[in-house]
């Protein structure tokens, strides 16, 4: 029999925590309304305080899955109405809590959906600290607030990244671009560590990027797949990458990273406010 997940565990820090496999919560942000907070029922751990919809991870469940599931169970937030952007982990060694940061991607009709919630409320970010917060959420809030609504956009120079590894790409450039596209799709699951992309959030952060693959020449015609957008360069690839980067930078809060080793292209995109990532570093983060 599988041990129950919804139990208290004694952490090495000396405190009791909820969740045999750890716990997670969803920090959902709507620019028009603020962030969705939950007032915990009187009878739960740290009752009557305000925090996020969340709870214990089930066996085999990822923190991202758990946060979205708990938001549905406690606040009736449909999974298809949120876009998960990033995650911050508080690591205790033998227990961890993950805050999944998300933005509204559809109509949210929140309501108290089970007995663990006493009230739900959209709160402006500058008013959150004035509420009676769960102590751990209160400690994490300043760092979380800095990342609200911030997305990572990864623009990939397909020709340069494909050409960085000797796997026979010169015999089949289209096939090589397809292989790269399929590997990039893994980032929608695994994400990219903040330490790799230089987002400035901190070592305990991970990003699920919006991935844009730019292809040119004989690699044109690669179809997009879930998790990877594809842009065909009509003339030269560098100009297309610059145009895509400029469009992505139209949301100034987002972090835009261009994966390329081309020196001139690096100069052009950094002038737009983007940062760059070497092909070898990117490839090391991709699943085979």
UniProtKB/TrEMBL annotation:
What cofactors are annotated for this protein? Mg(2+)
Could you confirm whether the keyword Hydrolase appears in this record? yes
Task: Give the UniProt keywords, A-Z.
Answer: Hydrolase
Q: Where is the Nudix hydrolase domain?
A: 19-145
- The keyword Disulfide bond belongs to this UniProt entry's keyword annotation: no
- One Pfam short name: NUDIX
Q: What is this protein called?
A: NUDIX domain-containing protein
Can you name the source organism? Amycolatopsis samaneae
């Amino acid at each position: 029999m599988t041990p129950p997940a919804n139990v208290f565990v004694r952490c090495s820090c000396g405190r009791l925590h909820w969740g045999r496999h750890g716990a997670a919560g969803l920090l959902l942000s709507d620019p028009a309304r603020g962030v969705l907070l939950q007032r915990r029922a009187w009878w739960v751990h740290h009752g009557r305080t305000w925090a996020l919809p969340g709870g214990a991870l089930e066996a085999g469940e990822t923190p991202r899955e758990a946060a979205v599931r708990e938001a549905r169970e406690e606040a009736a937030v449909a999974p298809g109405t949120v876009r998960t952007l990033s995650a911050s982990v508080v690591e205790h060694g033998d227990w961890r809590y993950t805050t999944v940061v998300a933005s509204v991607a559809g109509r949210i009709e929140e309501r108290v959906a089970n007995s663990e919630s006493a009230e739900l409320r959209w709160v402006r970010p500058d008013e959150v600290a004035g509420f009676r917060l769960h102590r751990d959420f209160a400690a994490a809030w300043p760092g979380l607030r800095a990342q609200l609504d911030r997305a990572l956009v990864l623009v990939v120079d397909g020709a340069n990244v494909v050409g960085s590894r000797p796997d026979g790409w010169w015999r089949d450039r289209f096939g090589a671009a397809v292989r790269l596209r399929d590997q990039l799709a893994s980032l929608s699951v695994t994400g990219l560590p903040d330490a790799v992309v230089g987002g400035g959030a901190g070592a305990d952060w991970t990003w699920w990027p919006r991935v844009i693959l730019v292809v040119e020449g004989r690699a044109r015609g690669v179809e997009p797949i879930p998790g990877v957008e594809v842009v065909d360069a009509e003339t030269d690839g560098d100009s297309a990458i610059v145009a895509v980067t400029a469009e992505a930078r139209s949301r100034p809060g987002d972090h835009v990273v261009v994966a390329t080793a081309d020196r001139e292209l690096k100069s052009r995109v950094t002038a737009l406010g983007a940062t760059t990532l070497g092909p070898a570093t990117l490839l090391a983060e991709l699943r085979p």
